[in-house]
Specification:
By secondary structure, the protein is an alpha/beta fold. The protein has two domains: about 240 residues, 3-Layer(aba) Sandwich (Aspartate Aminotransferase, domain 2), CATH 3.40.640.10; about 120 residues, Aspartate Aminotransferase, domain 1, CATH 3.90.1150. The strands form four sheets. It has a seven-stranded mixed β-sheet with strand order 1-9-8-5-4-2-3. The longest helix is centred in the last third of the chain and has 19 residues. β6 and β7 form a beta hairpin. α1 runs antiparallel to α8 and α2 packs parallel to α8.
């Protein structure tokens, strides 16, 4: 089965990991701070690495002070963790509809829903395409709320020449194997504000404080550490940080290859009946994570099943979050976000990853033409 996404591992990655395995530090060591510094150079903001993308979201919400009574606005076209981690902090989630061209949050929808209870607005950079950050910033600044970016798909993407990571107050990344770079499991939080960064660093290590200047009982002894605000163990070990550093050094080549594959799909699928191809705004330079087409005329399920029967691992990204039973049981109803629901009804992700060969991509294109042409 040709997968829709997979990691790209080479000998440099293996060498980086084995070097750490032969050393003194497997976790909480020098590779962690080095990876954070490398990420900061790419994202334009101070970074905290964590154990996975879900942990990154939870950490970002904690850093923003999200808690009971707060409202968080977000689009439903995302993985459930974007909402689940806000709810885990005690917040209420309200869903905003999407721009149907890019499946990113519609700033006008966010502006219509924001109120005095709103504490954060979340932009999900769907498929690697950055949202409309300038317009979103107008909304959040006008109401003094935090702008959060779920950029699980988008490390290496640019918006008006600025890197994703430098656009929102807090930005989260995922380094799952199908993402643009991998640490096997892992994630990161980029923070523009120093206080957000400090809170993120503490939260991922149980909330522990070791700096004598910040301890309540500073004369207890050299061993002493305190927890003033609860956190969790979301540490990312040195072994995986070493893999991430090696992967990050190849991010430009990953981006170039994915861009080339994106272009080849556009040429090969041009004119295919009943298919809408993904859009790209002129002011962005995405590192494409997904190639998301829309299959019209109610044929998405047919195409999905026939493609997989042909050994091509297409996927659907995503079920609108509030369609999940846990949200339905909490009172969310279908029809909240018509554009997102229409997008879900037609969306299909084609294989896209750095090691996808031209011949395999041509097979994907030819199979689609056979089904729909």
């Amino acid at each position: 089965m040709l997968p829709y996404g997979r990691q790209s591992i080479d000998q440099s990655d293996i060498d980086a990991v084995t070097a750490v395995l032969s050393g003194d530090w497997l976790t909480t060591g020098p590779q962690v701070t080095a990876f954070e510094a490398d990420l900061a150079a790419v994202t334009g903001a101070a970074c905290t690495v964590v154990s996975n993308g879900t942990a990154a979201l939870h950490t970002a919400y904690a850093a923003a002070g999200i808690g009971p009574g707060d409202v968080v606005l977000m689009p439903p076209m995302t993985f459930v963790a974007t909402a689940a981690t806000a709810i885990a902090r005690g917040a209420t989630v309200r869903f905003c509809d999407i721009d149907p061209r890019t499946a990113t949050i519609d700033p006008n929808a966010a502006a219509a829903l924001v109120d005095d209870a709103t504490r954060a607005v979340v932009c999900v950079d769907y498929a690697g395409h950055p949202g409309d950050y300038d317009r979103l910033r107008e909304v959040t600044d006008a109401h003094d709320v935090t702008l959060v970016s779920d950029a699980a798909h988008a490390i290496g993407s640019l918006y008006k020449g600025r890197p994703v990571g430098s656009l929102a107050d807090l930005t989260t990344f995922s380094f799952f194997p199908t993402k643009n770079l991998t640490t096997a499991e892992g994630g990161a939080v980029a923070a523009l504000d120093a206080s957000h960064h400090t809170r993120a660093q503490r939260f991922r290590t149980h909330g522990l404080i070791r700096d004598p200047r910040q301890l309540r009982d500073s004369d207890e002894g050299g061993w002493h550490q305190e927890v003033a605000e609860l956190g969790l163990n979301y540490r990312l070990p040195d072994v995986l940080c070493a893999l991430g550093r090696s992967q990050l050094s190849r991010l430009d080549s990953f981006k170039a290859r994915r861009a080339r594959l994106f272009e080849r799909y556009g040429v090969g699928l041009a004119g295919l009946p009943g298919v809408g191809l993904p859009a790209r705004h002129g002011d962005v330079d995405p590192l494409w994570h997904l190639y998301a087409i829309r299959v019209h005329d109610g044929r998405r399920r047919e195409v999905y099943e026939r493609m997989r029967a042909a050994g091509i691992g297409v996927q659907v990204n995503y079920l609108p979050v509030y369609w999940h039973p846990v949200f339905a049981d909490a009172g969310y109803r279908r029809g909240l976000c018509p554009e997102a629901e229409a997008f879900y009804g037609e969306q299909l992700s084609l294989p896209l990853y750095a090691d996808l060969g031209d011949a395999d991509q041509d097979r994907v294109i030819e199979t689609l033409w056979t089904i729909l042409g």
